[in-house]
Write a structure and sequence with these properties.
Largest sheet: 8 strands, mixed
Strand content: 25-35%
Structural class: alpha/beta
Distance between the termini: 49 Å
Shape: globular
Radius of gyration: 20 Å
Number of helices: 9
Length: 287
């Protein structure tokens, strides 16, 4: 008869736990999960699909994104299937520099507008050295995973578009999972919003969750745009006591007029939405 020592029993127990953990992690998850991370005055949004692929929109103004991802993704998963840089402002790009050093990126989508900042040059150098597949948003239509569809709404048809504000070339995407929908707007102003309205019908723009553009600036989130999107929830990614006084009062008032529930990363922390394709739920945390 075999006699197991306490150490052997403990080891078998741990191995059993790990086996169940791996079975759970590699199985299909019935939920779409969208995380709006609290990264201060900047944007960082993680979309985790039901098949456990990751789409990351922007990276925030610091290395905080690494901590957020380490607490959200499985410890062995160091791959981001799609990385999107909405535009090259430091509060969206800087965290991606750290990300590129620690994660494998399969596809990178950006708007092609370069910058003179040190952070951008570091970002570009890493992208080139790692030979990451690069796509321009202008040439992208959709990213699909069965019933999950991420549509690139903007920038498109730029021949007649004139704006001195580089924010207006921010990538704007619409995410649909069965009956649930999200709209991610980068830092576009009302000028960019008008262009989007002219290109897409209300059936495309209408979204249950709106990522409020430019951290709640008064120059975005116009009445006309909100009347098309009709969001049930609005998320403002904003830093505490930021020097720009974001979010601005007119933007908050516009959202309230439309009966939209407002969440803010400076107040609510990390904001997580999860959807089974029929119902959207949410929770707050400090990852």
């Amino acid at each position: 008869m075999k006699i197991f020592t306490s150490k052997t029993i403990f080891l078998l127990f741990i191995l059993n736990l790990f086996s169940w953990y791996f079975v759970f992690e590699f199985s299909e998850d019935p939920y779409l999960k969208v995380y709006f991370f609290d990264v201060g005055e900047g944007d960082a949004i993680l979309i985790q699909t039901p098949f456990r692929n990751q789409i990351l929109i922007d990276g925030g103004p610091s290395q905080t994104i690494l901590k957020k991802l380490s607490k959200t993704m499985p410890f062995w998963d160091k791959t981001i299937e799609v990385l999107i840089l909405t535009h090259s402002d430091k509060d969206h790009l800087t965290g991606q520099v750290s990300l590129l050093k620690h994660y494998q990126i399969e596809n990178l989508i950006w708007n092609g507008v370069e910058s003179e900042t040190i952070e951008y040059k570091q970002w570009k150098d890493l992208v080139q050295r790692k030979q990451i597949r690069i796509l321009l948003a202008q040439n992208c239509n959709k990213v699909k995973e069965k019933d999950l569809i991420l549509t690139f709404l903007w920038p498109k048809n730029l021949a007649n578009f004139k704006s001195k504000n580089s924010n207006d070339l921010s990538i704007v995407t619409h995410l649909k999972y069965f009956h649930n929908s999200f709209l991610f707007t980068g830092d576009i102003s009302s000028v960019g919003e008008k262009e989007i309205i002219s290109l897409w019908d209300q059936a495309t723009l209408k979204s249950q969750v709106l990522k409020v553009a430019h951290h709640g600036s008064k120059y975005s989130t116009s009445e006309e745009f909100l009347s098309k999107v009709q969001p049930e929830f609005a998320v403002i990614s904003v830093g505490k006591n930021n020097p720009y006084s974001h979010p601005h009062f007119p933007t908050l008032e516009n959202l309230k007029k439309h009966g939209t529930t407002i969440f803010r990363t400076d107040i609510n922390g990390d904001i997580k939405f999860f959807s089974d394709g029929k119902i959207i739920n949410y929770e707050f945390s400090n990852i």
